[in-house]
């Protein structure tokens, strides 16, 4: 019997109550939002529950929403996959913009170690309890977090190239 | 010596100072990389060695990081394929097709069956070249240059087919939203036929050179073995995971581009060692050849090579000059003024190294709001220090090339 999304939702709501919300079937993937302070519990539950069995962490990444309210300016997005039932799930957890931190899941999924380091490197999100939270792709001396929206892609002093023709502009976005 | 290489506060410097071997020998530090001819790419590993044995390793990556995710946030959707090319540059068409399929999922475009099949052909060709490089280079690293030189000419043949399809060879930038930029020429199919005739002969010989070769077996069996549980915990996908005995393949699990129409097996290994990885890739090449043949046999009649999506597919240049509608569409597409739905998409394809995923967040504008590439190399390379612990230095080189770590994909 295939794993139904309603079953996943019921189980989650039963266990975590109002801290898991915004359940949504978007195209081929089922997604929901989880409160950042219970994220490890949610992921551990999804992994270890005998019927859910989301045993594989496919992806972990950050998203920056500078226009959101203070408490929702960063999101950490987890993609889990249950290979037995071939079901994917996406968990989104919003965190505070001025003090972005969330608990690490590197003790649950070994592979999240570098993914969290990458997210820290680009967004400055602090993964509490991570064994070695330091930059991974950028150089150690860097002081800014380049994937944040306020970080300019081009050198703002450049005059030979007008970025309006190449990408996101104030009018078009 | 070690003080010169590392700052005194480094963990390894401390270990060296505190460790006293009974025979009076000392531990040493070896910098493998960043640019070392045996590592096929730019990554550094600081190794803590006891004689020839590796005790610990500390990888440093990011040497060719090019900020693709940031660039992607500032480019219209159709200008992002060139970025995907440069991730796993041994199999760029798979990355290109994966990106178009992500967009098609976002825009809800159904492509014709013929396009699906053409895509399958080009993706399997890319898989063949990817595995061909990995396996033949593994041969080189164990001291067998001949096999590499012998099969490498067939990568050239595949590149000629790419050239017929899209005009480029290594970084292909192939395809458009909804299909290909032009129909495949008869020459492309002719070259494909020749390849399908000649390559299996050479690949069989290549296999014969290695599979029962005493030296090769001694160098690879039980070298860099990883258990299925550990491989899954480390996020392995693709041939490296299948070598450990898990039959997860995105082409079967979530068929895209009509993979469900084809009959193929997913080869699995048992012990997850270097030899099994080699054999799994070998077997996958045979499966890919079989898929290409099936696709050619089942190819629907006609010459459809793209879906009818005028909002997203550039019209032919002649029409732009003579036809009002085409001109408008051309202008809108080039200026990136075509609306896209606000959505979050995850699409995965089976890349040469495993599950290549695209996580795309859009806000309705001309560029992605956020685009994250799930790069299989990046995720499984973190297992490397664990895999080489306790092995010899020369084994570390062999393990690295059998994992097929591609620097472009590792660093994005």
TrEMBL record, chain A:
Bilayer topology term: Peripheral membrane protein
Annotated membrane-spanning segments are: none
Q: Which domain of life is it from?
A: Bacteria
Q: Where is each NADH:ubiquinone oxidoreductase 30kDa subunit domain found?
A: 34-155
Where is the segment annotated Disordered?
Answer: 153-173
Name the reaction it catalyses.
a quinone + NADH + 5 H(+)(in) = a quinol + NAD(+) + 4 H(+)(out)
Q: Where is the composition biased (Basic and acidic residues)?
A: 153-166
Show the InterPro entries listed in the entry: NADH_DH_suC (IPR010218), NADH_UbQ_OxRdtase_30kDa_su (IPR001268), NADH_UbQ_OxRdtase_CS (IPR020396)
Subcellular localization is given as:
Cell membrane
Signal peptide residues are none
* One Gene Ontology molecular-function label: oxidoreductase activity
Keyword annotations from UniProtKB, A to Z: Cell membrane, Membrane, NAD, Oxidoreductase, Quinone, Translocase, Transport
Might you give the EC number(s) for this enzyme?
A: 7.1.1.-
Q: How does it assemble?
A: NDH-1 is composed of 14 different subunits. Subunits NuoB, C, D, E, F, and G constitute the peripheral sector of the complex.
Task: Give the matching HAMAP family.
Answer: NDH1_NuoC (MF_01357)
Task: Tell me which family the UniProt entry assigns to this protein.
Answer: Belongs to the complex I 30 kDa subunit family.
Give the protein's biological function: NDH-1 shuttles electrons from NADH, via FMN and iron-sulfur (Fe-S) centers, to quinones in the respiratory chain. The immediate electron acceptor for the enzyme in this species is believed to be a menaquinone. Couples the redox reaction to proton translocation (for every two electrons transferred, four hydrogen ions are translocated across the cytoplasmic membrane), and thus conserves the redox energy in a proton gradient.
Would you tell me the protein name for this molecule? NADH-quinone oxidoreductase subunit C
Q: Which organism is it from?
A: Flavobacterium taihuense
TrEMBL record, chain B:
Annotated protein name in UniProt: NADH-quinone oxidoreductase subunit D
Annotated membrane topology is: Peripheral membrane protein
Cell membrane listed as a keyword: yes
Record flagged with keyword Cytoplasm: no
Its ancestry begins with:
Bacteria, Pseudomonadati, Bacteroidota, Flavobacteriia, Flavobacteriales
List each copy of the NADH-quinone oxidoreductase subunit D domain by range. Answer: 141-411
Q: Which PANTHER family match?
A: NADH DEHYDROGENASE [UBIQUINONE] IRON-SULFUR PROTEIN 2, MITOCHONDRIAL, NADH-UBIQUINONE OXIDOREDUCTASE 49 KDA SUBUNIT
| Annotated catalysed reactions | a quinone + NADH + 5 H(+)(in) = a quinol + NAD(+) + 4 H(+)(out)
What family is this? Belongs to the complex I 49 kDa subunit family.
Record localization: Cell membrane
The record's keywords, sorted A to Z, are: Cell membrane, Membrane, NAD, Oxidoreductase, Quinone, Translocase, Transport
Top EC category: translocase
What the protein does comes down to: NDH-1 shuttles electrons from NADH, via FMN and iron-sulfur (Fe-S) centers, to quinones in the respiratory chain. The immediate electron acceptor for the enzyme in this species is believed to be ubiquinone. Couples the redox reaction to proton translocation (for every two electrons transferred, four hydrogen ions are translocated across the cytoplasmic membrane), and thus conserves the redox energy in a proton gradient. NDH-1 shuttles electrons from NADH, via FMN and iron-sulfur (Fe-S) centers, to quinones in the respiratory chain. The immediate electron acceptor for the enzyme in this species is believed to be a menaquinone. Couples the redox reaction to proton translocation (for every two electrons transferred, four hydrogen ions are translocated across the cytoplasmic membrane), and thus conserves the redox energy in a proton gradient.
Care to name a GO molecular-function term for this sequence?
oxidoreductase activity
Q: What is its EC number?
A: 7.1.1.-
The coding gene here is nuoD
Subunit note: NDH-1 is composed of 14 different subunits. Subunits NuoB, C, D, E, F, and G constitute the peripheral sector of the complex.
């Amino acid at each position: 019997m295939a794993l139904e999304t309603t079953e996943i939702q019921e189980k989650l709501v039963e266990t975590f109550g109002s801290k898991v919300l915004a359940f949504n079937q978007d195209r081929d993937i089922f997604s929901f939002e989880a409160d950042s302070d219970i994220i490890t519990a949610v992921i551990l539950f999804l992994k270890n529950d005998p019927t859910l069995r989301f045993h594989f962490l496919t992806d972990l990444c950050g998203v920056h929403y500078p226009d959101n309210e203070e408490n929702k300016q960063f999101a950490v997005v987890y993609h889990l996959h249950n290979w037995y039932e071939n079901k994917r799930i996406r968990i989104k957890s919003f965190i505070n913009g001025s003090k972005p931190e969330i608990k690490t899941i590197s003790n649950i999924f070994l592979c999240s170690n570098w993914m969290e380091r990458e997210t820290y490197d680009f967004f400055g999100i602090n993964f509490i309890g991570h064994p070695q939270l330091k930059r991974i792709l950028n150089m150690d001396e860097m002081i800014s977090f380049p994937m944040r929206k306020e970080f300019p892609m081009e050198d703002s002093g450049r005059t030979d190239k007008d970025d309006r023709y190449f990408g996101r502009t104030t009018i078009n976005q | 010596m070690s003080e010169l290489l590392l700052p005194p506060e480094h963990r390894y410097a401390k270990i060296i100072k505190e460790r006293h071997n009974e025979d009076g020998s000392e531990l040493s530090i070896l910098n493998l990389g960043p640019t070392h001819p045996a590592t096929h790419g730019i990554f550094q590993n600081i190794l803590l060695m006891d004689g020839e044995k590796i005790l610990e390793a500390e990888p440093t990556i990011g040497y060719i990081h090019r900020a693709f995710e940031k660039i992607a946030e500032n480019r219209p959707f159709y200008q992002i394929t060139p970025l995907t090319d440069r991730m796993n540059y041994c199999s760029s068409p798979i990355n290109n097709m994966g990106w178009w399929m992500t967009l098609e999922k976002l825009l809800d475009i159904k492509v014709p069956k013929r396009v699906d099949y053409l895509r399958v052909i080009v993706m399997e060709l890319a898989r063949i070249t990817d595995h061909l490089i990995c396996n033949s280079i593994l041969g080189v690293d164990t001291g067998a240059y001949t096999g590499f030189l012998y099969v490498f000419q067939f990568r050239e043949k595949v590149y000629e087919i790419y050239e017929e399809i899209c005009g480029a060879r290594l970084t292909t930038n192939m395809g458009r939203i909804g299909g290909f930029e032009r129909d495949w020429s008869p020459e492309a199919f002719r070259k494909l036929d020749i390849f399908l005739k000649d390559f299996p002969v050479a690949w069989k010989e290549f296999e014969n050179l290695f599979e029962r070769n005493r030296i090769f077996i001694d160098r690879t069996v039980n070298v860099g073995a990883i258990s299925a549980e550990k491989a899954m915990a480390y996020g392995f996908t693709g041939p490296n995971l299948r070598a450990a005995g898990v039959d997860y393949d995105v082409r079967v699990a979530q068929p895209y581009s009509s993979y469900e129409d084809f009959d193929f097996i997913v080869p699995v290994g048992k012990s997850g060692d270097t030899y099994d990885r080699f054999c799994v890739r070998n077997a996958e090449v045979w499966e890919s050849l079989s898929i290409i043949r099936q696709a050619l046999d089942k190819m629907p009649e006609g010459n459809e090579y793209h879906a009818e999506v005028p909002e997203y597919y550039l019209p032919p240049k002649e029409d732009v000059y003579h036809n009002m509608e085409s001109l408008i569409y051309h202008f809108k597409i080039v200026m990136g003024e075509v609306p896209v739905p606000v959505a979050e998409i995850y699409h995965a394809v089976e890349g040469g190294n495993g599950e290549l995923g695209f996580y795309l967040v859009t806000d309705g504008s001309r560029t992605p709001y956020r685009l994250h590439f799930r790069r299989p190399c990046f995720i499984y390379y973190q297992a490397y220090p664990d895999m080489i612990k306790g092995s010899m230095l020369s084994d570390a080189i062999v393990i690295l090339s059998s994992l097929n770590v591609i620097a472009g994909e590792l660093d994005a």
